[in-house]
Design goal:
Layout (H helix, E strand, L loop, with lengths): L3 E6 L17 H14 L3 E4 L8 H11 L4 E6 L6 H14 L5 E5 L5 H6 L6 H20 L4 E4 L4 E5 L13 E4 L3 H10 L2 E5 L3 H17 L5 E6 L2 E2 L3 H23 L17 H12 L2 E2 L3 E2 L1 H6 L7 E4 L1 H14 L1 E6 L4 H10 L1 H20 L1
Parallel strand pairs: 1-2, 1-14, 2-3, 3-4, 4-7, 7-8, 8-9, 9-14, 10-13
Antiparallel strand pairs: 5-6, 11-12, 12-13
Amino acid sequence: MPIELLGMIATTEGSETKALSGPAVDADYVREFSRAHEEAGFDRVLIGYSASSPDGFAVASAALHATERLKVLIAHRPGFVPPTIVARKLATLDHLTGGGRVAIHHITGGSEADQRRDGDFSEKGDRYRRTGEFIDVLRRTLTAAEPFDHEGEFYRFEGAYSGVKPATSDGIPIFFGGLSDGAVVVGAKGADVYMLFGEPLADVAEHVRTIRAAAAKEGRTIEFSLSTRPIIADTEEEAWDKADRIYTETEELIKAQQDGNTLAFARPLRRERNAVSADRLQEHAKRGDVHDERLWLGITRLTGPSGNSTAPVGTPEQVAEALLKYYDLGVTRFLIRGFDPLGDVREWGKELVPLLREGARRRDEESAERVA
């Protein structure tokens, strides 16, 4: 099937290699970043979430109105806004932006400190059950033709109903991520798309098998997305040199933050339990900086359990082929974001994006021929 390519936008410039600069919300940058993704051939962009970040719904609205076709994936942390309200917000935004361009990504919350910034002191196991119930009520609110009652562990509603439904028959796609036992149960039961980090091929294959089996027990099928940070150059040697420069720049920025000289993307300020998926990346990094020939975990090791940080390194052709090996495992969506966020998007649009689409198309044709 055709792949979906996702990027990720932010409201101000910055990455592991570049200190945050400018206002917290730079409206011109949001529009420019969104348009760059559309021009590069991306299908959708993720708007991230943290307890100190700008509001994702507002950012999504700006991105949608700045573009014509680009879709959005709004990260949302259940527990702070009732699912009935979130359903109406999503459906309303869907109608106001042409229809079929809005999706939601559920983040249960891997950082206790970040949860508490917004007043949530619940345990992680409770949060996963709450997320599962949230998704159930959200989906029902988006589809119910009549008012309904709900009484669960975390939510209670009487006569819940939304007068606004999604603008298209595709509805609002529901994304989800997490690899703890509780996460797999929730995602298999409620998600349309399960988001995975860029682990080595064998590990991703195992996740796909496990989650598919859990979904099958619920009578459901599920799709998969993979998140990585591609590093490309004209030659393989130049790509690895580029990776070395990214490592050095990141190391310098972390030191500058520790010295109190800059505001940067860096490690948590205090030790705490991390999400299982983030911890898994650290375990891979301990075993070596490079896996599967070109999956580089140098930044993963350097920055700690900060999420999406693994990078396929090489020429556009080599990186496309490395990512398409995950397509062979059942991954149909790829979320790629750069260490030079805006510049990388523009660069990827020249070769990497077309190569990924063409490679997936060829694989689909070959698969159809084998079946025939």
